[in-house]
Design brief:
Length: about 1350
């Protein structure tokens, strides 16, 4: 039968074939075709013959064709056919589809769609036909009957796609269906249907099936709707990540984690690769991705920026054209995130409105963590991002050796965080990815070497952390480090010290690195540049400290632990220790030669030897002999020769140049520290030979002899009496200055030595006091000679006392009440000068700590020790200040200079700020150390807030006592210091604690009840009030009250109006109201405006992100309601604040300038709010009533007053010009007055422009919302002018004739404006 059909088909005409086919039943034909196809025989030929014999022009033929077509589809779906046969049949069906009439095509399409919805497809092979059928349907020009009406082919296709997308899709065909749509011609609307459907299917599929589906979706999105596709993918994975993290952080016992972490990350990695590949082929997709994520930056970015989207962006950086844009976007996101965080932390008002979100930095670090799952395409981007953040936001310029943070105080903190984030990214990436370690290390070292002029402390810290993490791993990269050593002699000393400290753990595990370093240091030791030689000394001292010699005290016996820089890799066996000894002695030999070099090099050695001795006590003999032989060069051995030291030998004269050759005071200082430490630590543990004891005895005797002879020496013996020349211009003067500083240094060293060995003997303390008298005489002479104009010489010198000694001395002077010490200590206590000097040195040390992060002298670099000493010093100063107040002390003695109590207070203020700067994590220990009760055992545990509140109460009492004293006894310096101390301590209070509320109400009470006229005290107190108030609630109402007080004290701009005086805050009085309080409240108002601006921007961002469908946006505006309300209330209160100030007769100058700028800002923000309502008013159905009230208030209470304020300023200016003109020296005076007027009236046009912009947008909003918002606005017409040429000519002619045109013009101006002003005043009176 099949042969017959095929043979008939081969004839030229199809007539006989058609007749024959009509005789057969359709079922028979279908069965025949099926059996042939299953057998794999010539099914294709048979199918061609059947189609040839079933022309669409006849109804019977068309129906037969349809029947066979559907039969073939079922056959292909059944899966019974061989692959080749199935493919051949599909190919034939594709070719035949275009011959069908429209109605049958519609039938076929419906057949397919019902099969998909019912899930009756078995292998989905036949889905290839659907695009062909739909394409053919579109090409069909006739109208078709579809359900209840007639539609064109295009419309039918739209209905079919709609039906298909709203139906159920079987999980296994989702990918095929998505792939199928790329071959269907779709309109933008249809693409949207399909993309939405596919995105909804994500959650129903297995994780492994998503990557191929995403690939097909991206191909499909090239037809349009790219952004929605990307948004959907990002949102899906963001949700998935969140669920995954919740599951992992949830109950560990539950093994219900739906997806293993590794699998999820691998899938995400694959999808990122798909998207990046698609972006390479279709740049528009990349642009849409960036647009989508940038839009998210404005509003609540947690919807868009998530770990997945960050990883995606970092992968996109591999595409060159997007690289820069992506890094800019990420940089901006990081800094914005930190700035937002800072803004939120500093304002309770914002915290109540905006929930705290996760920060971008945590997301980026999560990406680093996830990248362990072979996300190689992300790691390169991470490394680049890390370096970009560190380069852009690291510390910037260096000025006088100090690092200066660029940017204002506020932007400093986000920048520091961003730089730290960069370092964290690099460190974590280094830990995870072996492949990239070499590159990170190389880049860090390159920056250390090439950026000598800019601060690189952040890169050195990173290097230190990298090496600490894995010194053994870095042996493979050691060549790069040894290469860096070659540059040591060209780098600044600070960099060299940081670099060597960082690589030190590596020196312990790699002999080759150590050897190459030693070679470099030896070369540097004899370099011509002084800095290179100093670097060599620094390097060798570091090596001596860290290579232990056998028999040295362990670090537990040592009073200093081996610090952070030590690494837990101990490779020192007995042999190593022996090798270390020869190695260390060899270095010591080299360092001895340095004692013949410049003073700076020697100074480094003297400062370093003590630390070496402490770490490596076996080197004691070598070090002590070196110091002794050095000291002998300058020591007079004869017991009766005065002075005991050869000061002449310490000074080098080369022609006219006179310089210090030997820093003798530091040499002595080093000798005494080493000696005292050795005697107390090493000798008790050793049963030494006699000669060793002898040697130390010699040193002691020398120091004893120097002490007694220094006391006997008069200033004349040093040639430094009052008649000596101390001018800096002559050679003799310079030499005398150097000598004087040496003698003063030596006295200080001897004071410390004798105190430490005194064991509270009275004789020793008398010697100490005599030495101090010598020091004092010299310092007085120097101060006197330096003259009154210049800074005092003695204060410039850094004391050589160690911090430990300062702490012991202060404790003995002020707190030691032991009976048997009483008599000897009374010697020292009898000298007020000595006690004051001790407190001054403590201040100097704390100042050093604040500026550099460490202090000079032994243990100054050890943060633990410094902290311990700081606690002891604070305890003493606190006791001294609270038990002997300044008032009591001042009554006793009227001396020059500050009283001891005031110095103590100054010290406390510096210490509190230094502790918060450098020891933030240890604040709890610090406060606990301050209030140690008398019975040490019963220490009660309290929170930081409790302990801080206890200290605060002490200072509050002191301030109250001060304020209640007589007017003439009021010490403004002390009051200001107390306020600063209270500000520092109040930062330790938790804003939610009752102590914080107490502190706020106390400060508020002081401001309300005290009318001190001291401007700086008033400023400090109000700053404290504001800083507390913003953490409790918004300060807007406080500002309004203060503005009323200012208005009351300064009077009105209209002199006829008498202002009713309010008395909210007594601290506001005639002396402080302007400029002090006025400028303070204006700067605070500016901060409130910034917060409001930030909220409006946030709202706008959310609106622009929302999908523009009516239901969505109407629901979306609901959650913003509390924020909108808060914004309007804030602006309303600020409006009343400005209403007061604009009517105040402010003195010209800064107050007026700042007020005009702030008014300008106020109107800009009102405009921003109006524009926001323009965006939302259609969807939310109009604008809220309180917004209308705000507009009304601005129209009645602010705008008209702004114009009268401008008139007031201009009148004042013309008067000041007039006065200047009347004075003698007319030209100069007028010129300066003119310049000032121009400068001060500059903000006026900006303000007028801002007001008019506001009114312009109000008109738009009135039209859009159908509410007449302009009814309360009095539009000014004074600037709607046009220039009339003829009048202008006439005026110019008059000008030439008339010399006094200036006076008449100002009169005209006054006449024009006066009536308007009075009228406005009347209106305002009516309103109020």
């Amino acid at each position: 039968m099949d042969q017959k059909i095929i043979s008939l088909a081969s004839e030229k005409t199809a007539d006989r074939l058609q007749e024959f086919l009509q005789t057969l039943k359709e079922d028979y034909l279908a069965n025949l075709l099926q059996s042939q196809a299953v057998k794999g025989k010539a099914a294709g030929a048979l199918l061609r013959a059947i189609f040839k014999g079933s022309p669409c022009s006849e109804e019977a033929g068309a129906l037969r064709r349809l029947k066979i077509y559907i039969c073939c589809i079922h056959l292909v779906e059944s899966g019974d056919l061989q692959k080749e046969v199935a493919s051949e049949i599909i190919g034939l069906l594709m070719l035949e589809a275009h011959n069908f009439p429209g109605s049958l095509l519609l039938e076929l399409a419906k057949e397919f769609i019902s099969a998909i919805k019912e899930g009756s497809l078995t292998n989905g092979k036949s889905l290839e036909l659907l695009p062909i059928i739909l394409t053919a349907l579109v090409a069909n020009k006739e109208n078709l009957d579809y359900e209840k009406g007639e539609l064109s082919g295009e419309e039918c296709k739209k209905q079919l796609i709609n039906t298909l997308c709203s139906g159920r899709w079987d999980q296994q065909y989702v990918i095929q269906l998505t792939s199928m749509f790329k071959d269907v011609p779709l309109t933008a609307e249809e693409v949207e249907f399909v993309v939405e459907k596919v995105l909804r299917m994500f959650s129903k599929l297995n994780l492994q099936e998503i990557p191929p589906l995403v690939y097909q979706l991206l191909v499909l999105s090239s037809k349009g709707n790219r952004r929605r596709a990307l948004e959907g993918i990002i949102t899906f994975f963001n949700e998935l990540d969140k669920h995954h993290n919740e599951e992992q952080s949830g109950d560990e016992l539950l093994d219900l984690v739906t997806v293993p972490s590794g699998e999820l990350r691998h899938v995400e990695g694959t999808i990122i690769l798909h998207i990046v590949f698609a972006i390479k082929l279709d740049c528009e997709l990349g642009r849409e991705l960036l647009k989508h994520l940038k839009a998210g930056q404005q509003g609540d970015f947690s919807n868009n920026i998530c770990p997945f989207s960050i990883a995606l962006l970092l992968s996109v950086t591999r595409i060159q054209r997007f690289e820069e844009q992506v890094f800019d976007l990420l940089k901006a996101s990081v800094v914005k995130s930190f700035k937002d965080l800072q803004l939120l932390q500093g304002s309770k008002f914002l915290q109540n409105l905006v929930p705290h979100r996760s920060c971008v930095s945590t997301m980026i670090l999560e990406v680093v963590k996830n990248s362990v799952h072979s996300w190689d395409h992300v790691t390169q981007g991470l490394v680049e991002l890390g370096f970009i953040l560190m380069d852009s936001y690291g510390p910037k310029k260096i000025l006088d050796g100090k690092t200066i943070e660029t940017g204002s105080g506020l932007s400093k903190i986000p920048n520091q965080h961003a730089c730290k984030l960069g370092a964290n990214i690099l460190l974590e990436t280094f830990k995870i990815h072996e492949m990239i370690r070499q590159e990170i290390l190389e880049q860090v070292l390159n920056r250390v070497v090439t950026r000598a002029s800019s601060p690189i402390s952040h890169f050195l810290d990173l290097l230190s952390n990298i090496i600490m993490y894995a010194p053994l791993v870095l042996q493979s990269c050691s060549s790069k480090i040894t290469e860096t050593f070659d540059y040591l002699s060209f780098l600044p000393l600070q960099t060299v010290q940081g670099l060597l400290k960082a690589v030190q753990p590596l020196l312990k595990v790699s002999m080759s690195v150590r050897d190459s370093l030693i070679v470099v240091l030896r070369k540097a030791m004899f370099a011509s540049q002084l800095d290179a030689r100093k670097s060599a000394v620094a390097g060798f001292l570091l090596l001596l400290k860290n290579f232990k010699v056998l028999g040295s005290l362990s670090s537990s016996q040592c009073s200093q632990p081996i610090g952070v820089s030590q690494v837990h890799v101990d490779v020192h066996s007995r042999y190593n220790s022996v090798a270390n000894e020869t190695f260390c002695l060899e270095i010591m030999d080299g360092l001895r030669r340095c004692l013949g070099q410049q003073a700076d090099v020697r100074l480094m050695l003297y400062k370093g030897f003590y630390d070496v001795l402490r770490r490596n006590s076996q080197l004691a003999n070598s070090i002590m002999h070196t110091l002794l032989s050095q000291l002998k060069q300058f020591y007079e051995p004869e017991p009766d020769v005065l002075p005991p030291l050869k000061l002449e030998a310490c000074i080098l004269t080369q022609g006219d140049q006179i310089s210090l050759q030997e820093p003798l005071d530091h040499l002595l200082c080093c000798v005494q520290h080493c000696l005292v430490w050795y005697k107390s630590r090493v000798m008790p543990l050793q049963q030494e030979e006699e000669e060793e004891e002898e040697f130390y005895k010699d040193l002691e005797d020398m120091l004893e002899s120097i002490t007694s002879r220094m006391i006997k020496s008069e200033l004349e013996d040093f040639e430094l009496d009052k008649s000596a020349d101390f001018s800096q211009s002559s050679g003799v003067g310079i030499k005398n200055n150097i000598c004087a500083s040496l003698v003063m240094g030596i006295c200080e060293v001897l004071i410390e030595y004798n105190f430490s060995i005194s064991n509270f003997s009275k004789n020793k303390f008398e010697e100490v006091l005599n030495l101090f008298m010598c020091y004092k005489k010299l310092s007085d002479i120097l101060n006197e000679k330096a003259g009154k104009g210049k800074t005092k010489m003695a204060n410039k010198m850094d004391s050589v006392w160690s911090m430990k000694f300062v702490s012991d001395l202060l404790t003995a002077l002020f707190r030691d009440s032991t009976q048997n010490h009483e008599e000897s200590l009374s010697v020292l206590r009898s000298s007020n000068e000595f006690m004051r000097h001790a407190v001054s040195v403590a201040l100097q040390k704390v100042q050093q700590l604040k500026e550099t992060g460490h202090v000079s002298g032994p243990d100054g670099q050890n943060p633990e020790k410094v902290f311990q000493n700081l606690c002891d010093i604070t305890r003493v100063l606190l006791w001294r200040y609270t038990s002997i107040p300044t008032s009591v002390e001042d009554l006793g003695k009227k001396e020059k200079g500050k009283s001891i109590s005031l110095l103590c207070l100054e010290g406390l203020q510096k210490i509190f700020s230094a502790v918060q700067q450098f020891y933030q994590p240890k604040i709890h220990h610090f406060l606990r150390a301050l209030d140690v009760p008398d019975n040490e055992g019963e220490e009660v545990e309290g929170s930081v807030s409790h302990r801080a509140a206890f200290q605060i109460r002490q200072f509050q009492r002191s301030l109250l006592n001060l304020l209640s004293s007589q007017e003439e006894d009021f010490n403004s310096k002390e009051a200001l210091l107390l306020v600063t101390v209270l500000s520092n301590l109040s930062r330790l209070l938790e804003p939610s604690s009752p102590q914080f509320v107490q502190m706020l109400s106390w400060t508020s009470k002081i401001c309300k009840e005290n009318n001190q006229e001291d401007a700086s005290f008033c400023k400090g107190l109000l700053n404290l009030l504001f800083s507390l108030h913003v953490l409790y609630k918004s300060p807007a109402i406080l500002l309004r009250d203060l503005s009323q007080d200012i208005h009351g004290h300064l009077g009105d701009i209209d002199q006829d109006v008498e202002v009713e005086k309010t008395d909210h805050f007594a601290i506001v009085n005639l002396r402080t109201a302007a400029p002090t309080v006025c400028l303070l409240v204006l700067s605070q108002a500016e901060k409130v405006l910034e917060e409001v601006d930030w909220l409006i921007t946030k709202l706008k961002g959310q609106v622009s992100q929302e999908i523009v469908s009516d239901e969505a946006s109407s629901q979306a505006t609901l959650p913003n309601h509390p924020i909108e309300k808060a914004i309007i209330v804030q602006l309303g209160t600020l409006l009343t604040f400005f209403h007061e100030l604009v009517q105040t007769a402010l003195p010209s100058g800064s107050c007026v300038d700042v007020l005009l700028k702030d008014l300008c800002k106020m109107y800009t923000i009102l405009t921003a709010l109006v524009r926001y309502y323009l965006q939302v008013c259609q969807s939310s159905g109009g604008i809220p009533k309180n917004m209308e009230k705000l507009v009304k208030l601005s129209g009645s209470h602010l705008t008209p007053l702004c114009y009268s304020f401008i008139s007031y300023i201009q009148n004042k200016k013309s008067q000041s010009l007039k006065c200047a003109g009347e004075k003698k020296g007319k030209a100069g005076a007028v010129a300066t007055a003119m310049a000032r007027v121009l400068r001060e009236t500059k903000p006026i046009p900006n303000l007028i422009f801002a007001i008019e912009q506001y009114e312009k947008f109000l008109i738009h909003l009135s039209k859009k919302s159908k509410v007449n918002l302009m009814q309360h606005m009095k539009l000014s017409t004074s600037r709607d002018f046009k220039i009339k040429g003829n009048i202008l000519d006439m005026v110019l002619r008059e000008d030439e004739e008339d010399e006094h045109e200036e006076g008449t013009a100002s009169e005209h101006e006054g006449q024009n404006k006066e009536p308007a002003k009075k009228k406005r005043k009347k209106e305002l009176k009516c309103l109020s």
